[in-house]
Amino acid sequence: MKDANSPHTAHEHQRDSFGSSFGVLVALAGSAVGLGNLWRFPYLVGENGGAAFILIYLGFVLLIGLPILISEFIIGRRSQAAARGAFRKLAPDGRWHVAGSLAVLCCTLILSFYSVVGGWGIEYLIKAFRFDFSSGNTPGMATMFSDFATSTTGPLICHTVFLGVTGLIVIMGVKNGIEKFSKVMMPLLFVIMIGLAVRSLTLPGAKEGIDYLFRPDWSKVTSGTFLAALGQAFFSLSLGSGMVITYGSYVKKKENIVKIGTETAVADTLFALIAGCAIMPAVFAFGISPGEGPGLVFTTLPYIFSQLPAGGVVAILFFLALLLAALTSSISVLEVIVAFTIEEFHLKRKGAVALCLGVIWVLGALCSLSLGVLGDFKVFGKNIFDLFDFASANVLMLIGGLLVVLFVGWKLGRSVIHDELTNSGGLKIPVWLLDTILFLIRFLAPAAIAVIAIFQWI
Ligand code: PHE
Question: What does 18-79 look like in DSSP terms, one character per residue?
Answer without folding.
Answer: -SSHHHHHHHHHHHHSSHIIIIIHHHHHHHTTSHHHHHHHHHHIIIIIHHHHHHHHHHHHHH
